[in-house]
Amino acid sequence: MNTIENLSRRRFLQGSAGLTLGFCLPALAAPVAGPGKAGEGAVGPIHFEPNAFLRIGTDNTVTVLSKHLEMGQGTYTGLATILADELDADWNTVRVEGAPADAKRYNNLFWGPAQGTGGSTAMANSWEQMRKAGAAGRAMLVSAAAIKWNVPAAEIMVRDGVLSHTKSKHRASFGELAVDAATLPVPTDLKLKDPKDFRLIGKQVKRKDSADKTNGQARFTQDVQLPGMLVAVVAHPPRFGATVKSFDARRAKAVKGVVDVVQIPQGVAVLASDTWSAKKGRDALSVNWDESQAFTLGSEEIFARYRELAKTPGLVAHQSGDADQAFGKAARVVRASYDFPYLAHAAMEPMNCVIRLGGDGCEVWNGEQMQTGDQYALAGLFGLKPEQVTIHMLYAGGSFGRRASSHSDYVLEAAHIVKAIDGRAPVKLVWMREDDMRAGYYRPLFHHALEAALDDKGRLTGWRHRLVGQSIVAGTAFEKNLVKDGIDQVSVEGAANLPYAIPNMKVDLHTPKDIPVPVLWWRSVGSSHTAYSTETFLDQVAGAMGTDPVALRLALLPGHPRHAGVLKLAAEKAGWGGPLKAGKPGERRGRGVAVHESFNSYVAQVAEVTVGKDGSIKVDRIVCAVDCGIAINPDNVRAQVQGAIGFALSAALHGEITLKEGRVEQGNFDGYPPLRIHEMPVVEVHIVPSAAAPSGIGEPGVPPAAPAVANAIAAATGKHLTRMPFNPAELAA
Amino acid sequence: MIKLDVNGKQHQLDVAPDTPLLWALRDTLHLTGTKYGCGQALCGACTVQVDGAPMRSCVTPVSAVAGRRITTIEAVDRDRVGKAVQDAWRKLDVVQCGYCQSGQIMSAVSLLRQNRRPSDNDIDNAMSGNLCRCATYVRIRAAIHEAAKALA
């Protein structure tokens, strides 16, 4: 484990500037897998491959290779839309295939020479690349037609996968020209479309994965079956930091189907011919754990420590004006502090990974989100070169950040099992739901303390925000780029760059290093907590100032037209300031607003809630305005925002992973209940028309939802909730 | 040996009688459209139909469904209601990650077989056992109404 990390760390280069996720590796050697090798296999004969992203068959099939993982966010469809538009392809003949792991061709352009999906970067980093890939293919088909028909290229039309020349009445499909086009040089000087000529981008196109995901044919890691494959279920330690002292495998081995029991650094793995036998074997195993080095604190003790820490200054993440002086001169100070629990990603597909060790390398089947990091990690463990690690990127049954493991945690666990059996069989590691929920890699627990200074004229003159929480990137390959002067940028994103024009501001951070609970990015990362504290606290301040929350925000947003734009649009569409229909007797209703930028996308939401006499919370409706630059697939933008709101409400209303004496108390969806359909509000999504380059949409819908709802609850009840998940008992009338 | 009738085909399975139907379908019959999500009937990803009624296959031992008519997502489009639901799902692009959707569709088909014009409340009652972590609920609701319209 250490060897791998050290090896990786040494090889990571100083990152380039201005990256959200700066992850750098030297250029890798030539790939072992070509296009198609790692995917589902090409359909039809292949004759024309102008670049790494496009293949056109003589049967007219247009295959787009996606370098990014499809985990529900619509990436396959989005990337194909961009390329197919510039190609002028027929959308019905376009299919998408997962690209192989090869950072040389398929790196995330925002991450340096490393391949991976995350930070809502898929569309943003691929926008130009996919446009050029499509335009290159189009230009070569046009040249091929011009030569064949002996007509000027400029007179050739391309539409829906067909080239035509009006004067000579020539017509040919992509497939008919594929062989000729393949012999031509790849053009370097490409003319991209004027956006007014887009025929797919910004229009209504259908998802490419709908058919397979509604008939049981979509292939997830969980579905992989290989000849001779064994399924492994692992007994994990009951506390973080505990290790195996000894184990007795006799009862496990007596289970029919169990083939082997092996110790690995992560615990004890039971291997069987099928999943149920492996699980029965695991449950029959008796393991004696060494807990002498284990972490034994509970969540409440961690919070207590953090609250103490919050009384002392942290490292300054942002400073403008002189906040301390503003507070010295304040006529009134508003204060609040906030607690955010650990959160599990709890993707519907629990973590899993299939690995086969062969003569000349290893092969991985995974909902693969961190190709290059995982290649290095596996190469380190197996003594291979990274390029000897072939990765088949399959659909992921959700991720929300979990599969973007900068520690390659579950991938390495699978690899250790394969290694422990000397690679004699391919192994599918399957985590049961309880393994998935208790394994850590949570959204970190955070405590925030906020103060606002109002002067004698009631103006907001000062803002101090202190955050306490573990670093996600410390100790990972991302550290060099994302930790600056001791400050993990993803701990303070959304707080240190607060857009509001407050003359004196200070944001500081404590990063406890003695809490070994594994933490990881969770859909919207730092903004999952900073948007809540800043946007609900601002409403408290608005209350103290006697100002309308929308009016106050707009007054504080000069120079931030995109924030103001979504805020105005959401307020207008929601009927902000207008009457809200009264609830039934005893019910209290309220409307609340929040606006937040994350991953360069701007989202405002207005929530309407009903609070029952007993404090029960019903979120009735959320009106959302979003500015994500050019909306490549508007329907997917709406889908992502709808889903993001549901995801955020899960955390606001229910989500909490708690530790007691170091043990995780939740294990399944009874203790950690995601939102269910009867709790889903009506959602309205309004997209701001934009000519700006596309930014992300997978995550940005999450941050404003919980604060908008909390502000609506405050409007209904007068009670500002400062702890997530919300406690209805605090709201009982 | 346990006899299973799955999607109209008869199978003889050599599995322990306590094996959940889910794992028999997935690991033995290689019908992997039915998903594992929780193992405790909490999430609905494993929903199949047994004699037309929705059942959580992760807690149903194969011995309990021997000889009964089992339908999985792979055969959902073989009847009119199933086809209407699948079409509506595709028309509205309900899916995101897709992992829970087999179970969602099986539950929706069962609802529409019993109730051709479900209200929002009927949908809540029939579908609240099926979790979707991507929260595609807005579209699940719309697609059920859409399918009901198509079946009317």
Describe the secondary structure blueprint for this structure.
The complex is a heterodimer of chains A (733) and B (152).
Chain A: H1 2-11, E1 46-51, E2 54-57, E3 62-66, H2 75-87, E4 94-98, H3 103-106, H4 122-149, E5 157-159, E6 162-165, E7 170-173, H5 174-181, E8 230-235, E9 243-248, H6 250-253, E10 258-264, E11 267-272, H7 275-284, E12 286-290, H8 299-309, E13 315-320, H9 323-328, E14 332-340, E15 352-358, E16 361-366, H10 371-382, E17 389-393, H11 409-420, E18 427-430, H12 433-438, E19 446-454, E20 460-469, H13 479-482, E21 483-484, E22 487-488, H14 489-492, E23 504-510, H15 527-545, H16 549-555, H17 561-574, E24 588-598, E25 601-611, E26 617-627, H18 634-653, E27 659-660, E28 663-664, E29 682-687, H19 705-717
Parallel strand pairs in A: 3-4, 8-18, 16-17, 20-23, 26-29
Antiparallel strand pairs in A: 1-2, 2-3, 5-6, 6-7, 8-11, 9-12, 10-11, 13-23, 14-19, 15-16, 15-18, 19-20, 21-22, 24-25, 25-26, 27-28
Helix pairs in contact in A: 1-10, 2-4, 4-5, 10-11, 15-19
Chain B: E1 2-6, E2 9-13, H1 21-28, E3 47-50, E4 53-56, E5 69-71, H2 80-91, H3 101-114, H4 120-127, H5 137-151
Parallel strand pairs in B: 1-5
Antiparallel strand pairs in B: 1-2, 3-4, 3-5
Commentary on this structure:
The complex is a heterodimer of chains A (733) and B (152). Chain A is an alpha+beta fold. Chain A is 28% helix and 23% strand. In chain A, the strands form eight sheets. In chain A, strands 10-11-8-18-15-16-17 form a seven-stranded mixed beta sheet, sandwiched between helices. Chain A has a five-stranded mixed beta sheet with strand order 13-23-20-19-14, with helices on both faces. In chain A, strand 1 and strand 2 form a beta hairpin. In chain A, helix 1 packs across helix 10 and helix 4 crosses helix 5. With 152 residues, chain B is an alpha+beta fold. Chain B has two domains: 72 residues, Beta-grasp domain (Ubiquitin-like (UB roll), Roll), CATH 3.10.20.30; 77 residues, [2Fe-2S]-binding domain (DNA polymerase, domain 1). Helix content of chain B is 38%, strand content 14%. In chain B, strands 2-1-5-3-4 form a five-stranded mixed beta sheet, sandwiched between helices. In chain B, strand 1 and strand 2 form a beta hairpin. In chain B, helix 2 crosses helix 5 and helix 3 packs across helix 4. Chains A and B meet through helix 18 of A and helix 1, helix 2, helix 3, helix 4 and helix 5 of B.
